[in-house]
Amino acid sequence: MKKYIFVTGGVCSSLGKGIAASSLGSLLECRGLRIRMIKIDPYINVDAGTMSPYQHGEVYVTDDGAETDLDLGNYARFTNSPLSREHSITTGQVYQSVITKEREGRYLGRTVQVIPHITDEIKQRIFRIGEAQDADVTLIEVGGTVGDIESIPFLEAARQFSHDVGKKNVVFIHLTLVPEVTGGEMKTKPTQHSVKQLLEIGIVPDILLCRSTKPLEESMRSKIALFTNVDDEAVISAHDAGSTIYEVPLNYHAEGLDDIAVAKLGIETRPIDLSEWEKVVNTIIGARHTVRIALVGKYIDLHDTYKSVHEALYHGGIANTVKVDIIKIDAEELEKTEDLDSLMEGIHGILIPGGFGQRGITGMVKAARYARQNALPCFGICLGLQVMVIEYSRNVLEIEDADSSEFSPDGKNSVVSLLEEQVDVTHYGGTMRLGRSETRLKAGTMIRDIYGEETIFERHRHRYEVSNRFRPLLEEKGLIISGVTPDEALVESIQWPDHPWGIGVQYHPEFQSKPIKAHPLFTSFIAAADEVRGRG
Asked: How confident is residue 431, by pLDDT bands cut at 50, 70 and 90?
């Protein structure tokens, strides 16, 4: 029988359910089990594609082009679970499906209700993933917190799920907060109330993950167990990691989380092998020195906006045994700055990430020009590539009004322009160039040497491309078109000539980077930045 683990949260949001679920998933994989990861998001949006980065952080894109919550990025970094649009479930998807079936008459005239129709739809979506032949355990993270009105149908579905497949095949893990008040005293009352709310719904937690700034004392663990009716050993101290979030799997194993989970599910596994995680953590702790990377973006106030980019940079540091210090630079503020030498002092590389809209573009162009003229490693991703092309066109081709048609719709020199199939699009959700596609890398280019192969597959999320009208002139003036689509119709990567490391890519390599296996572009970029650091 297939096994299922539901991860819920209480007290407040952003406690780290995604990291917790991912870490447990990685521990189960280290014991030889094959896992699946599912994220449930209670918002009514069909997916995360139209949400502001300030509202919801980054949009993580899967191979099949699904625009999902950033927690799927955590799943990808910590585990080997396959991820697709089916692994992301939202209220919008569920209700849209049920209403469509009702309009088609598939409920045979019955009154359509939350129970059983909505809850059945939720359970069926979980079953489709969990009953796969090569899946042993499926972990389902329920977004939001217990008590949120939006989460109630999903929690009710989870309760029914345990009844449907048998309690011995389901484990409920509840993540709560043990806050620290004035004087350093830790309080258990929020956890008690959160578990009480969960019990009122009909779900009895098997394991509690207690988030705190420091490890729980045994007396506090016993107190929580007494008031929540959870076994003492199943009250897990989920205290803050020391040097890196990649310590979390090791911390959870030390607390016995995976031992308890497999015991409650009645699974026999091979002895756990944590050597890869230990190597990652030891490499971070033993880093030789620090490389400073300026991330020039337009959403820098919220860390989660560029979550995958941040983590991929850290992965590049792990691969080079160096620590990466990310210096966030607001592109709008950069527009007002004339003294870039002072601003960039001590910076060893510049990364310009993806994004949408005109705000901050002038600042990004200034950053690209500075990197090109000062031989500073520069990595442009998606919008970052387009910025590099705009800068090159203005300052090398001397086309002063070179721009993107996204920013200057009536401009005469749009070196970046809208895809032909996007011209009449009025509904923006899921309408971009999305997901995995093929790129051919040209022989003799830096990026071909970095990948070590001609054909690669990466994920996209964009509407605008380098204009083919300007490609001949760009190449004539030295810009290297280093990667194209198989039909050579679209530019996928560019390289600055006579520059130690100036690469732009139209896709998002950060989505395929892992701490255990850094993406080759990030590994090479950090290595180039480390050379700059070494030169002083």
From this structure: low
User: Which one-letter amino acid corresponds to residue 370?
Assistant: Y
Q: State the DSSP code for 24.
A: H
Nearest to 17 by CA among 221, 309, 248, 254: 248
* CB 306, CB 60: distance < 8 Å: no
Count CB atoms within 10 A of the CB of residue 291: 29
Average pLDDT of span 40-51: 86
Helix and strand numbers (H, E) in the chain are 19, 21
Nearest to 352 by CA among 308, 387, 321: 387
Is the separation of the CB atoms in 3 and 136 below 8 Å? Answer: yes
The alpha carbon torsion through 292, 327, 460, 419 (nearest 10 deg) reads: -120
Inter-axis angle of helices 307-319 and 275-285, nearest 10: 90
- 494 closest CA partner among 398, 391, 421, 419: 391
Q: pTM of the full predicted structure?
A: 0.94
Amino acid occupying residue 442: K
pLDDT at 46: 87
Over 414-483, what HEC string results? EEEEECHHHCCCCCCCCCCEEEEEEEEECCCCHHHHHHCCCEEEEEEEECEEECCCCHHHHHHCCCEEEE
Residue 174 has pLDDT above 80, yes or no: yes
Residue 96 is predicted with a pLDDT of 96
The mean pLDDT value for 5-21 works out to 92
Q: In the structure encoding, which two tokens stand for residue 340, read together? A: 């870039």
Tokens of 201: 């719904």
Distance, CA of 452 to chain centre: 26
Q: Look at residue 379 in the predicted model and tell me its pLDDT.
A: 98
Instruction: Name, in order, each residue with C-beta under 8 angstroms of 461's C-beta and a sequence gap of 6 or more.
Output: 59, 61, 67, 354, 382, 432, 433, 434, 508
Q: What's the confidence (pLDDT) of residue 420?
A: 59
Residue 412's CB: how many other CB atoms inside 10 A? 9
Question: Which pLDDT value is given to residue 419?
Answer: 66
Q: What DSSP line would sit under 29-69, residue for residue?
A: HHTT--EEEEEEE-SSSSSSTTS-HHHH-PPEE-TT--EE-
Q: Which residues are designated catalytic?
A: 382, 508, 510
Q: What is the pLDDT of residue 424?
A: 42
**Residue 460: how many CB atoms within 10 A of its CB?**
21
Phi, psi for 411 (deg, rounded to 5)? -65, 150
| Cβ atoms of residues 2 and 135 within 8 Å | yes
pLDDT, tens digit, 9 for 90 and up, residues 360-412: 899 999 999 999 999 999 999 999 999 999 999 999 999 999 999 998 888 89
Could you report the per-residue pLDDT of 100-123, keeping only the tens digit for each? Answer: 999 999 998 899 999 999 999 999
Neighbours of 231 (CB within 10 A): 13
Ramachandran region of residue 229, left (φ > 0), alpha (ψ -120 to 50) or beta?
Answer: left
